[in-house]
Amino acid sequence: ALLSSADAEKTPGYWNKGARRRLELALALQPAAQRAKNIILFMGDGMGLSTMSAARIYQGQLSGGSGEENILAMETFPHVALAKVSGAVLGGTVLLPLLEIPLNSPCFQTYTIDRQVPDSAGTGTAYLCGVKANAKTLGLSGAAVYGKCRTAFGNEVDSILHRARLAGKSVGIVTTTRVQHASPGAAYAHSASRSWYADANMPKEALRDGCKDIAYQLVHNTDINVILGGGRMYMTPTRTPDPEYPEDPDQNGIRKDGQDLIAEWLSAKKVVCQGRGGARYVWDKKGLDAVEDDSVSHLMGLFEPKDMRYELNRNTSTDPSIVEMTEKAIRILRRNPNGFFLFVEDEIDHGHHSGRAKQALMEAVMLDRAVARAGELTSPTDTLTVVTADHSHVFTFGGSTPRGNSIFGLAPKKAKDKRAYTSILYGNGPGYSIHDGVRPAASLPAAEDKDYRQQAAVPLETETHSGEDVVVLAQGPMAHLFHGVQEQHYIAHAMAYAACLEPYAAEPGCRAARRASHGTQCSPQPLLALLALCMAALTVG
């Protein structure tokens, strides 16, 4: 007779059989040493190991299971590394497969130059540009000083997205934040402050010194084929009504320079590579769904004035999900015979900062669904897919909860104060709650609500990042380069090596195909270089 799953788990054979199957898979695993045509980097902002574990359980419970036995799509990737978020630099050399790189560390660490616990701007510069930087700066080396415009000049560093575009690949950004936010911003901007979203957000001194806001750089620095996320208000002049909320002046455009960057972007794309594919701008799900994949070479979709809504708050008829945006981006980008680079970010981070674990974990579940969908649309034979996080949060779950306990449920025993508490807790944040010297008891069903704030040990307006390691998972060509305990800026180097991008374009195994020349500094006029490429293509055609 067949045993139920619960009964089967009580037999040694169940565990022995499963372990043997995994052992056989491990023994059959061989490095995929060919070069990658495509790269997809999924970044769960704030997706620490505890968040991943809790999201795994939540996803399993959403599917009707107890949750613990569930496996995320990203967890099926065969190659895993850890990125350290704190530590000291020591001497040493690291040997990597096919690559010998002398480093000043016997292991790899992800602190920023000036912070033990990093922010999303410094980390974005690390995993996208390949260099350590100071917190709150974007696309600049550590020589740049936060908030000091003039220190940016001459200290620009180029992202792997920028290098991929100059190498002839199509490139894209998908995010559930504003597209000018720290993580996506590191893919194209060089800014002494992550907060300079529009010129209205910049100090007068920075404007006088010649610095440009991040939204301006979005449309002028790199020819990005697909841009999907939020951030409409930073693109249009002051008092420009928002198309979705025209009666709400708080959602209007805020640019003081009078520039309509959306119109400028559309106009520029009509000039660059004219006749090689159109450009479209959309601001809602209906518009996105109407875009035919083979009709455009460039697509910008801005679906909210600022950040997009949490998945649990999303209007499914007006705003696309991260899964839908990822699919649209891949379908457009994969038409390029030279391949593509796509950066996909889900803002798990904001849910944690607000102390709302359910919002954060649903975002992590949605990121995993996007990973799964991308796997269906691409092949690991030519696509390197990497999943990682920029940092973690002071989020944890415990309390000796029984198997199948709701991830948002209560611990089975009361605390020392004789009051119930949730399994999920925060080390600090807005969930701190003491009334008349007494902690309120947690209760159901209140703790299951999407906006419930789990209790925190220390009162803060917003919960903070934490400093523990984050995971890096990879599959596809050169995925074996992600191993051991890595330093965060190494991620950009491993991806560049895998796809024969600078500074590794001349490495063994890379084709001696024509590539645009590219230095370590930001090209001041990338659209001119791309226009030259397009004219050459038209001449040959």
Please give a quick description of this structure.
With 541 residues, the protein is of the alpha/beta class.
Layout of helices and strands:
Blueprint: H1 5-8, H2 12-28, E1 38-44, H3 49-62, E2 79-83, E3 94-96, E4 99-101, H4 120-129, H5 160-166, E5 170-178, H6 182-185, H7 204-208, H8 214-220, E6 226-230, H9 261-271, E7 278-282, H10 285-290, E8 296-302, H11 322-333, E9 340-346, H12 348-353, H13 357-377, E10 383-389, E11 392-393, E12 395-397, E13 424-429, E14 456-459, E15 465-466, E16 470-475, E17 484-486, H14 490-498, H15 526-540
Parallel strand pairs: 1-9, 1-10, 2-17, 5-6, 5-9, 6-8, 7-8, 13-14
Antiparallel strand pairs: 2-16, 3-4, 10-16, 11-15, 12-13
